[in-house]
Amino acid sequence: MLQPLVKYCNAICPISDKLGEALLEYGEIIHLKKDELFLKAGMVSNHASWILKGLVRSYYVREGEEITTKFLTEGATITSIYSFYSRKPGNEYIMALEDSVLACFTYDHMQRMYKDFPEFNVIGRIVTERYLYFLEIELYNLRKTKAEDRYQYFIKHFPDLHQRVPLKYIATYLGMNLETLSRIRGKKK
Amino acid sequence: MLQPLVKYCNAICPISDKLGEALLEYGEIIHLKKDELFLKAGMVSNHASWILKGLVRSYYVREGEEITTKFLTEGATITSIYSFYSRKPGNEYIMALEDSVLACFTYDHMQRMYKDFPEFNVIGRIVTERYLYFLEIELYNLRKTKAEDRYQYFIKHFPDLHQRVPLKYIATYLGMNLETLSRIRGKKK
After folding, report:
1. pLDDT exceeds cutoff 90 at B147
2. Is B128 on the interface with A (CB under 8 A)?
């Protein structure tokens, strides 16, 4: 099941056989059922995970309400950035929105591969750059003051997501309530 | 003037003499006066820059108002993430808030160093991870609905900045108007 990941890495930068073996040895396949939690608030995020199949969201709870912070699909990596890099407990939950399959690597295995295989740093750098680019788009969108503008920007940049994700999650992700989102969508039709 | 950068890289990962020479050869020192622009909207961001001295902000113009998107100080890197990675013109301006000194590398030189020196990918990966962590903190803060909470979070995470940055820039950065920010600060005293 890890072969697509080896292929994915190879497409970014040709990897040595040894790194290919390490990816297969360290990678742990995790199957998540729809609505199953992968990370809970208060825990240290100990895995960087590639999404091989499915759709995952992260969120935190603010005054009793779940605030969605990210949606990630096939080919993307997911972790709780704050917790993974700081090695401290975070406030994020990670949950499958569809039946999903993740290829998971512990923090220690990631560091070992970075140390042992120079080319893994090329892959890590490029994957992190893509994530940075993705976060910049999110940040830019969240700075928009009009809810409708945020929704249009979301549709433009993530056209596949709004077909797959329940509206209630898109609403908190875009910093609006469900009624506002429904109104905007109604107007569009 | 580029020696501090070589030292900075060496502290992240021991670099070869050849990479040290490439950094000195490709690095261009740029001096910016306070309020001087380094990047304008509509241009392709062609440099990744290390701030050797000073304080820089990025912003874009929304309905005639400058919306500050980042403050970056000594030791940080600055570029227009969207434009630099997409190689397309962006809408961001980069401006010095104090007399500043930048060590600038063109996109092509960055790619060449990544290609020629495996260890530069280690540095690039770690610097990008730090930036990612920084953006995640910004994103988390922007999702807070109460202006006062955003200000407190900003003070906590960037205690040095609010001494160095004019209030009007902090206000748009935190998604509030100057009156709101002044009121929050007044209450605190």
Report:
1. yes
2. yes
Q: What is the pTM of this model?
A: 0.94
Contact between B139 and A139 using a beta-carbon 8 Å cutoff? yes
Chains A, B: CB pairs < 8 Å: 80
pLDDT in tens, A13-29: 999 999 999 999 999 99
**pLDDT above 70 coverage of chain A, percent:** 99
Q: How far apart are CA A84 and CA A49, in angstroms?
A: 11
Tell me which residue of A109, A118, A107, A52 sits closest to A81, measured CA to CA.
A107
Are A75 and A126 in contact by the 8 Å Cβ rule? The answer is no
What confidence category does residue A45 fall into, taking pLDDT thresholds of 50, 70 and 90? Answer: very high
Q: Which residues of A touch B143 (CB under 8 A)?
A: 67, 69, 142, 175
Mean pLDDT of chain A: 94
ipTM over 0.85? The verdict is: yes
Please judge whether A118 and B118 are an interchain contact, meaning their C-beta atoms are less than 8 angstroms apart. Answer: yes
Q: Shortest Cα distance from B11 to chain A (angstroms)?
A: 15
Q: B140 vs A81: CB contact, 8 Å cut-off?
A: no
Q: What percent of chain B lies above the pLDDT cut of 70?
A: 99
Report pLDDT for A188: 67
Q: Is A2 at the interface with chain B, CB within 8 A?
A: no
Under a CB-based contact definition with an 8 Å cutoff, are residues A102 and A1 in contact?
A: no
Helix H, strand E, coil C: the string for B61-97 is: EECCEEEEEEEEECCCEECCHHHHHHCCCCCCEEEEC
B110 touching A (Cβ < 8 Å): no
Buried b (16+ CB within 10 A) or exposed e, B87-117: eeebbbbbbbbeebbbbbbebebbeebbeeb
DSSP secondary structure code for residue A143 in this structure: T
CA dist B61 and A69 (Å) reads: 26
Residues of chain A contacting B69 with CB distance shorter than 8 Å? 139-140, 143
SS3 A33: coil
Contacts of B133 in chain A (CB under 8 A): 81-82, 85-86
pLDDT of residue A162: 83
